[in-house]
Write a structure and sequence with these properties.
The radius of gyration is 46 Å and the shape is elongated. Helices cover 46% and strands 20% of the residues. The strands form 4 sheets. Strands 18-19-21-22-23-24-25-26 form an 8-stranded mixed beta barrel, surrounded by 6 helices. Strands 1-10-11-12-8-9 form a 6-stranded mixed β-sheet, sandwiched between helices. The protein folds into 4 domains: 20-158, Response regulator (Rossmann fold), CATH 3.40.50.2300; 175-317, GAF domain (Beta-Lactamase), CATH 3.30.450; 323-471, 2-Layer Sandwich (Alpha-Beta Plaits); 494-735, EAL domain (TIM Barrel), CATH 3.20.20. Helix 25 links the parallel strand 25 (691-695) and strand 26 (713-715). The protein is an alpha/beta fold. Ligand C2E binds at residues 503, 518-520, 531-533, 536, 552, 576-578, 638-639, 662, 695-698, 715-717, 722. It holds the Pfam family EAL. Residues 22-146 form the Response regulatory domain. Residues 346-473 form the GGDEF domain. InterPro entries: CheY-like_superfamily, Cyclic-di-GMP_PDE-like, DUF3369, EAL_dom, EAL_sf, GGDEF_dom, Nucleotide_cyclase, Rev_trsase/Diguanyl_cyclase.
Length: 740
């Protein structure tokens, strides 16, 4: 910091108030008291005059000392009422009254009679005189030396106390998290430091960019009569002298003194701003005060710099780097705060907005295009709301708006992006989907709120584009459970508690095992199993099916390898594949890599996809399946009969086998109509030239029936339940199944 301390032009140092030294003469000898009073009258010592107080006894003297803490020097007769009255007074002054600064000059009646040595030593007294030696001249010398040592001692003590306070004040400053909070504390701490009321303001230089231009200052904190100036610009302050003094400190980059106060200049540290602190004090500041303030201002500068750093870190942790708006962390933090506040919770809503078709367009047109669309959405949302509404980017093309429900309405939000005549203006290809969730309907943490909103949005989007839904609180419990289950599933994957079992598929004519279906199993630590119909759909809606599916594929291929090694290379392993897995652009390459890693022939593997998946994404599914079949992998259409596929589509579908859904097989021998459907399914398969397999065959009756109607393959409990690979190998061996 600049070491200069300058006086403002036009102002000069006011004369310090006249300095007075307070001296107490203690002696029961009236003559000596009179002579002393006479000698000290009109005397100037070290630039000050002397105020003489007199006491004639120990009692009187201790009363005066207790009343006047400003006594600088005591002339003390050792012998008064008693022989040691003077020495007792020294003790009282130092130990009882606690005054360690007043300088003491001991006087004795007879020359050469030294006072008790220990007392002099203990109380740091090295000044004693016999009264007869103390001429007027000598008295002046003694007083001058005594008062000088008093003044030194006092300023050292004051500085020491001040330094200790600086340490404490600095600690208080370093805990501040915002500029306002810090600035507010600074003014308070300065008052404490100077031990007198101080009022003032702290001003931040706003625009460093325009050299020579007018200074733009912002008052970030103010106390006392300046209080109303807080958060206004410096110029709007109706006190030209104050404004002028602050400007001078900025211009000169130095401390500027005024008659009743000063402006501290706080230079910027690294990338921070620079500040000026204007102070007015009740009393004139002395050199020690100035020195303290100078030391303290280094702490203030560091504190302000810390606050800037802190804000930077905040930005890094809570701001989206691309769009410069709050990120997911910021949203979660704000959500948590809102959920904790009954009032806010009762009136706020969370709206999530998703740009339909975004990832497709981002891939097709490049990330530059994607960034442009995201920027557009972020800007328009931000501009639409006052600052108490939080607009955040959760991830990718997903935005969140959190605020009062009368302000944050999905319809109005979406209207921001619609253009007359056309449905949406966004790149002309995007619509939006949204979910609105009332926090009042909710219990649970921010994570659960966000997760629930996401699940609802995901479900809504599965119905198509331009979907706008309100979150149904009834679903929350299910969502909360789903969320917990998803976490547990991830743990299970990591702990290796996910496995597969294999269920045999037979040729009904020869009785030979032609294949096995690999089925996922999750056995929990307590031995309980979670059925795949619970965790597979959950993994599918949350996207976790990709890593999970990868794992299941690897386990299935390992089983295929074991079968082949045991001589059952002709037994196909059928693997269930979800839509999300199959539709990954690199699915086929990954599949290849897995085959190579497991050392399994493509011909030993079958992929099962459900009929509904095939029909919903017909073109992309077909091209993926074609690529798989080119490699030798066969394809089965699972749950056939439930997906409304027309014959014309079925003909185009690159598949080898239709699996008649279990529900139709179940009815065989029970309900006549359903037998008809099963019969029709078998006939359709024959018409499109595919193999057909019946699943869920439990009884010999069912087995006979399907065979008689032209279906020659079957899978079901009648033949074998799903079982671990070891068990399957034994089972095959026991059956005497021929090895290839
Ligand atoms: P799915 O693909 O239709 O599998 C056939 C289901 O029928 C299996 O149930 C199997 O144990 C059961 N099943 C087989 N024979 C009989 C029988 O005679 N009677 C009865 N009552 N049931 C029989 P599971 O293992 O509970 O699997 C249920 C569903 O979970 C599967 O239906 C499939 O959609 C899904 N799934 C299972 N494993 C996987 C997997 O690895 N990946 C994917 N994507 N989905 C899987
Ligand atoms: Ca299946
Ligand atoms: Ca099935």
């Amino acid at each position: 910091m600049d070491e200069r301390i300058l006086w403002l032009e036009g102002e000069s140092p006011v004369a310090q108030p006249a300095l007075t030294w307070c001296v107490l003469a203690v002696d029961d000898d009236a003559d000596f008291q009179r002579a002393t009073a006479f000698a000290l009258e009109e005397l100037q010592v070290l630039g000050g005059r002397i105020e003489l107080l007199q006491a004639f006894s120990y009692r009187e003297a201790s009363a005066v000392l207790a009343r006047r803490p400003d006594i600088a020097l005591v002339l003390l007769d050792v012998v008064m009422e008693t022989d040691d009255a003077g020495l007792r007074l020294v003790r009282t002054l130092r130990e009882v009254i606690g005054n360690s600064e007043a300088h003491i000059v001991l006087l004795t009646g007879e020359p050469g009679m030294a006072p008790v040595q220990e007392v002099m030593h203990e109380y740091d007294i090295n000044d004693y005189w016999s009264k007869s030696e103390l001429t007027a001249d000598r008295l002046l010398t003694v007083l001058t030396a005594g008062l000088r040592s008093f003044a030194q001692l006092r300023s050292v003590t004051k500085a020491r106390r001040g330094l200790q306070m600086i340490v404490e004040s600095s600690n208080a400053l370093f805990c501040s998290k915002s500029q306002h909070e810090l600035a507010g504390k600074v003014l308070g701490e300065i008052g404490l430091l100077l031990d007198q009321p101080a009022e003032g303001l702290i001003c931040m230089r706003e625009d460093m960019a325009a050299p020579g231009g007018p200074l733009q200052g912002r008052v970030i904190s103010a106390t006392g009569r300046f209080q109303h100036a807080r958060d206004t610009s410096l110029d709007s302050l109706d006190e030209p002298e104050v404004v002028n003094a602050v400007r001078s400190a900025f211009d000169l980059e130095a401390v500027v003194r005024r008659s009743r106060g000063l402006v501290l200049y706080l230079p910027r540290l690294q990338a921070g701003a620079d500040y000026a602190c204007y102070l007015e004090t009740a009393c004139v500041l002395d050199d020690t005060d100035l020195e303290l303030l100078r030391v303290f201002s280094a702490s203030i500068s560091r504190g302000l710099y810390n606050v800037t750093l802190f804000r930077r870190l905040e930005e890094m942790a809570y701001q989206d780097e691309l769009l410069k708006i709050p990120n997911r962390n910021a949203l979660l933090r704000m959500l948590d705060l809102t959920l904790q506040d009954e009032q806010l919770r009762s009136e706020q809503v969370l709206v999530l907005i998703d740009i339909d078709n975004f990832s497709g367009a981002n891939t097709a047109f490049g990330t530059g295009y994607g960034d442009f669309i995201l920027g557009l959405v972020a800007r328009r949302l931000r501009d639409a709301f006052a600052s108490q509404v939080l607009v955040a980017r959760v991830r990718d093309d997903l935005f969140a708006i959190l605020g009062p429900q009368q302000e944050v309405r999905a319809a109005a939000l979406v209207a921001l992006f619609r253009r007359q005549g056309r449905p949406y203006e966004l790149g002309q290809v995007h619509s939006l989907s949204s979910v609105t969730l009332r926090l009042a309907d909710f219990v649970g943490s921010a994570h659960i709120v966000l997760q629930s909103a996401l699940l609802t949005l995901k479900q809504a989007k599965s119905a198509g584009y331009d979907q706008h839904v309100i979150h149904d609180p009834g679903l929350q419990r299910t969502h909360a459970e789903s969320y917990r289950m998803l976490l547990a599933l991830r743990d299970a994957v990591e702990a290796g508690r996910i496995s597969i079992e294999l269920q045999p598929q037979l040729d009904l004519n020869s009785g030979a095992v032609i294949g096995v279906e690999a089925l996922a199993r999750w056995r929990q630590a307590d031995g309980q199993s979670v059925p795949p119909l619970q965790f597979i759909p959950l993994a599918e809606t949350t996207g976790y099916i990709l890593p999970l599916g990868d794992l299941l594929l690897r386990l299935s291929l390992q089983a295929a390898k074991r079968l082949a090694d045991a001589g059952y290379g002709g037994v196909r392993v059928a693997v269930n594949v979800s839509a999300a897995q199959l539709l990954q652009p690199d699915f086929v390459e990954r599949f290849d890599a897995h085959l190579r890693a497991a050392e399994v022939r493509a011909q030993q593997v079958e992929v099962e996809i459900t009929e509904s998946v095939a029909m919903r994404n017909f073109d992309s599914v077909c091209s993926q399946l074609r690529a798989l079949r080119e490699r030798g992998v066969s394809v089965a259409i699972d749950d056939f009969g439930t997906g409304f596929s027309s014959l014309s589509y079925l003909r185009l579908l690159p598949a080898d086998r239709l699996k008649i859904d279990r529900s139709f097989i179940m009815e065989i021998g029970a309900v006549a109509d359903h037998q008809l459907i099963a019969e029709a399914v078998i006939q359709i398969a024959a018409r499109v030239g595919m193999q057909v397999i019946a699943e869920g065959v439990e009884t010999p009756l069912q087995a006979d029936w399907v065979r008689q109607h032209g279906c020659h393959e079957a899978q079901g409990y009648l033949f074998g339940k799903p079982m671990p690979c070891d068990q399957l190998l034994n089972w095959l061996a026991e059956r005497g199944q021929a090895t290839a």
